Amino acid sequence: MTRLLVMGGGLIGRRHAERILAHPSVELAALVDPNPDAATDLDVTRCTSLADAPPADGVIIATPTPLHAENAHDAAALNLPMLIEKPVAATLAQADSLDGITQPILIGHHRRHHPKVKALKALLDADTIGQPVTASLIWAMRKPDAYFQGNWRATDGSPVLINLVHDLDLIRYWFGNITQIAALPGPTLRGLHIESGAVALATANGPTITISFADTAPSPWGFEAATGENPNIGTTHQDMLWITGTKGAISFPSLTPWQGRDWSHPATAQSPAAANGPTPLDAQLDHFLDVIAGRAVPICTLADGRAALAAALTIEQQLQERAA
Question: Dmax of the chain from CA atoms?
């Protein structure tokens, strides 16, 4: 049995703990959280810091983002391989401070493990729609007011670093590095510094990409709603990403390809591609076990996490400057 620690008993830390408890080859050594009220319904050993934690083979760091770097250094001092939740850190300086850590680091952009994410990557690599030209992505939902009350999100709950950073990582995974960014702010309805906006991106492999996002607008469009991968968010099964190419187009997550030639031959839909597999968090946990055992290298590296963070911070900076 591989013994893992989970640091942080919030929304995502709880989900990690639940996946470990359900895994036949993993034991949850302890939940590490100074808050005694964190995930109290889970029957687990508890401790307040890594210094008090029982022996383990690895740790999942799911604490608030500003603590990630400090927690990672503490884990490294104990020679623990680590899975660090996204974003990897709050600042690029914090992310860069992790460069000297010699223990394996996997960044928790768990959507890379989604079977439909991997299937779309394979379809693009197989030239199914030719050279990608454009892509349009929507992420819009209305977060409940309670999500922001009495916690760090009330002052630092930007959907760019909490949510859009996932999409930025997938854009890099599918289309290569992000080379240019332009962002425009949308309305703020809760009085927070960032709530909605639009982003235009250029990528190393060619396609330009637009993103429309909001955490104040209920809609059926967004990765979580489209795929049903988050149990806290209602499932709609509606596509939320549309990609065009020189031979056709494809929408995600239905993986419906469209084929066509020119304007005299309208594009026609083809049968959706099949994509099955374990849930992203389960697949990520299995991958982390392989990383710990030396059977695999991280699919999402520290450099990947830093690049997604850098793009998110650039977007946040532009939104704040243009809203001023």
Answer: 70
